[in-house]
Write the structure tokens for this entry.
Amino acid sequence: MCNDCGCGDTDKVSVEIHESLLAGNAAQAAHNREHFAARGMLALNLMGSPGSGKTALLEATARALAVGPAAGSPHHLAALSGDLATDHDGARLRAAGIPAATITTGSACHLDAKLVHHALHHLDLGDADTLVIENVGNLVCPAIYDLGEAAAVVALSVTEGEDKPLKYPTMFHGADLVLLTKVDLLPHLPGFRMAVLEDALARTMPRLRVIRISAVTGEGLPGWIAWLEEQRSAMPKRIAAAPGHHEHPAHPHAH
Amino acid sequence: MHEYSLVRALLDRVDAAVREHGATSVAALRVRIGEVAGVEMELFSSAFELARAGTTSAAADLELVSAPARWECTSCRVEAPRGGVLRCPACGDPVRLAAGDEIVLERIEMEVP
């Protein structure tokens, strides 16, 4: 305060902060990651445009695990589905035999780590060891929110056009895998140039990895399931008797 | 529009600093946004205009600073040209984003009695 004349003027104080605006989300994501590690669960963040085929891909994956190329796999899927207004995707996934809960985001265009953490308490994960978090259909906003996943997967359909990676680079900068979906439609897309898409991905994906896939014909499913196995084997081994979420006496938050 | 979520996080962080320093209001804020952080500066500003009403930042000047993207080799640290294929021009190894994806509250200027 001004002590010279008693006018009551305030002092200007400048404080250096240098803190990410995503710091809160990052802390929550780290916490989610601990939960996944304690359960020995592979968590994936599946992103992509509305209609890129994320749900169909999971349905096809469930079919392949039950009766398809990966039948007999010891692994079990569960899913969390982000949706602005409906439970349609969750219902489709449950009908396909995948335990699934929906996170209704209202007007929010993306999931964040806190929403995922809350939802984890409302999904019976059963014996699932692979959790796919199907994000809100959006090629922009979900890209910057870490959910605590082990890997980020982007579904990009061939009908969206070859230049999408260049138009939405942030999404592809962080992707560990791009699933190029609906490749069964390629014969109907005479203007589609695969080389242009591959070039766009090489300019936007530092960890370039692409699998061409079709939920209709099953093309690419073995490669996708092999990628899932690869991710699982890269996980740190579950520590025996690691405390699960509900048994953790020192769990630092309220449920 | 995730810019609104980011502005909410900004205002929460500023409020914590205001309480910590016993300030009465915020005069200015400086936020650095990376070129490939996935944030649209104009949308961030509009979101700030909407969200700041009734907060300690109601009269604050918001300064947004853009930070350029920089890709460098994970092995030899050579910088890769922007817009090019994301491989090291020297050794061919993958490159990583060394700068340009940050969204950082740098400085707060507050009125303290």
